[in-house]
Each structure stands twice: as C-alpha cells, then as structure tokens.
Amino acid sequence: MNSRAGQYRGRSRGRYWQWHLIGLSLIACWGVTLIAPVPVIAQAVAQAAAQPEIQKMAELKQTANRWIEVNVATQRLVAWEGATPVYAIIVSTGTDDHPTLPGSFAVQTKHRTARMQGDDYDVPDVPYTMYYSGGYAIHGAYWHRRFGTPVSHGCVNVAVDHAKWLYDWAAVGTPVVVHF
C-alpha cells in the first residue's frame, strides 16, 4: 500500500466523521442566510474578535454617525451613515514596503490641496486631503489610475472626483476604520 494514499484516506475518513458529528449550522451575514460548517463559523468569529477594528465597526453601525471604512484586503472604501452604506469606491492603499496601517482613527485635518513629500517622492497640490493619523491621509490621486491595486506610500489614494465627494461629506472628527 502506498503510505501517502493511506495517510490521505485516514485524514479523509477522519474529516468525514468529524463533519458527520458536527453537522451544518446556519448563519446570517448582511441579511443573507448562508450554510457553513461549524469550524468555518468558529474561525470567522475568532478572526473578527482578533481585530479590534471589527468591533469598532459594529459599534459605529449602532449609531447614526458618519464614518469611513477602508478595507485594505479588498482595496475598497465605504462611507457609512450608521449601518447604511452611502458611498463605495475602489481605492489604492499602501504597498508591502509602505503599508497602510490598520486601526481606528478620526479625520484630524482637511486641506483642499497639500504637498506630500517623502524620501522618494514630492507631489504638489494633492487634492482633497484628509489626514487621519500623522502623515496618513485619504486624498485624491491625479498621478495614477491603478485603483484597486496597492501603490501608495501608506495613504489611501482615491480618484479625484471621489476624493471631492468624501471631502465634502466628512467633517473633522469623522471616524476612519482601516482593516484587512
């Protein structure tokens, strides 16, 4: 007998019995009923609990306040009013070398235009800039069209027309939640 085949059969049979004993569980996610194995549900719950940003978003959804969600994994930004999404766009966040850091923040300052400088860049007249943590900002990007791909030095790059909408909609103090 091939030992690898025997190992595979043993694991397969073990998983069969595990699934047979555990069964399936129903879960609701955003109003859609899904069927998922219990271990998958437990893993999702554990991952959510490990990210304080997920807890913060749940809290913000219980209010009527405006807030901004940035999902680095999907390169998406959603503007929310309580639990209602009001604007959703594709963005460009930081690269592996210059990551966009996760966390719960708030818009600290707003500038119609700003000059952004670093060791290897100097970009004048960056439109609709909203700083939310030190040098990290949500802002318009006129120098590229690669939205949906991480290309920034850590900021959240947005198409200029979308940046204007966000700039007009958000106030200083608006919560910004960045997560993976």
From TrEMBL:
Keyword field: Cell shape, Cell wall biogenesis/degradation, Membrane, Peptidoglycan synthesis, Transferase, Transmembrane, Transmembrane helix
PROSITE patterns named in the record: LD_TPASE, PROKAR_LIPOPROTEIN
Ranges for domain L,D-TPase catalytic: 66-179
Entry protein name: L,D-transpeptidase
Active-site feature positions: 139, 155
Bilayer-crossing regions: 21-42
An example Gene Ontology molecular-function term: peptidoglycan L,D-transpeptidase activity
Pfam families: YkuD
Signal sequence annotation: none
GO (cellular component) term, any one: extracellular region
Superkingdom, natural source: Bacteria
InterPro entries: LD-transpeptidase, LD_TPept_cat_dom, Transpep_catalytic_dom
Biological process per Gene Ontology, one example term: peptidoglycan-protein cross-linking
Biochemical pathway: Cell wall biogenesis; peptidoglycan biosynthesis
